[in-house]
Amino acid sequence: MTPIRHNGSAGSDNDAVLDAVRDCVLAVGVRRTTLTDVARRAGVSRMTLYRRWPDVRSLVGDLMTREWIAVATGAMPEHRADMTARELLTRGLVDAVRDFVAHPLFRKILDVDPELLLPYVLDRLGASQEALLELLAGVLREGHADGSVRRAPVERQARSVLLIVQSFTLSLRTVTDEDAPELSAEAFLGELRGILERTLTP
Q1: pLDDT(168) > 90
Q2: Fewer CB within 10 A of the end CB, N or C, for the chain?
Q3: What is the 3-state secondary structure (H, E, C) of the chain?
């Protein structure tokens, strides 16, 4: 699955701008980032940005879509003959949560601008969530076919898995205590692996 492109502009142009807004957000957070800052870093005019994005939040939305899809798809293992679809999906999702919570942009937004994530938790699905659901549904269908995944309506099953993984991604750091081995991040990722295995096993 390739990153979603928006606004019909060339991917390389988009990437240069999104790289610039990522650098700005990592440096000062979303609220202190301006289109002027982004234009200067990207080497383009402000009018070029205004023609594609009306404000910084829309730019950051496209940046999050690119980054989150890259994390999710990058965590999925390559198909192997000795791995069932359930094993592939479980391993990939646990690795994705680990990669998300370590991702510099994700950490910065949680620390400084967490309200940016609230619409995608409380109000609507975002583009990256829709893409992840598509990825989940594909692997779940493979699991139904090879007998490794419990049969259920695929869309509902994919959304249920997303709810589980999303809660771990957003809240993992609030429940961990790295001074207590049984409450470390890796211990909770082990619990996530067990939860996914139990809910997906026929």
Answers
A1: yes
A2: C
A3: CCCCCCCCCCHHHHHHHHHHHHHHHHHHCCCCCCHHHHHHHHCCCHHHHHHHCCCHHHHHHHHHHHHHHHHHHHHCCCCCCCCCHHHHHHHHHHHHHHHHHHCHHHHHHHHHCHHHCCHHHHHCCCHHHHHHHHHHHHHHHHHHHHCCCCCCCHHHHHHHHHHHHHHHHHHHHHHCCCCCHHHCHHHHHHHHHHHHHHHHCC
Q: Report the 10 Å Cβ neighbour count for 161.
A: 23
34-40 contact pairs (CB < 8 A, 24+) = 35/59
pTM of this prediction? 0.86
Q: What per-residue string of b and e applies to 7-33 under the rule 16 or more CB within 10 Å gives b?
A: eeeeeeebeebbebbbebbeeeebeeb
Q: Per the structure block, which two tokens stand in for 46?
A: 């402000």
For residues 95 and 186, is the Cβ–Cβ distance under 8 A? no
User: What percent of the chain has a predicted confidence (pLDDT) above 70?
Assistant: 94
Q: Are 30 and 56 in contact (CB under 8 A)?
A: yes
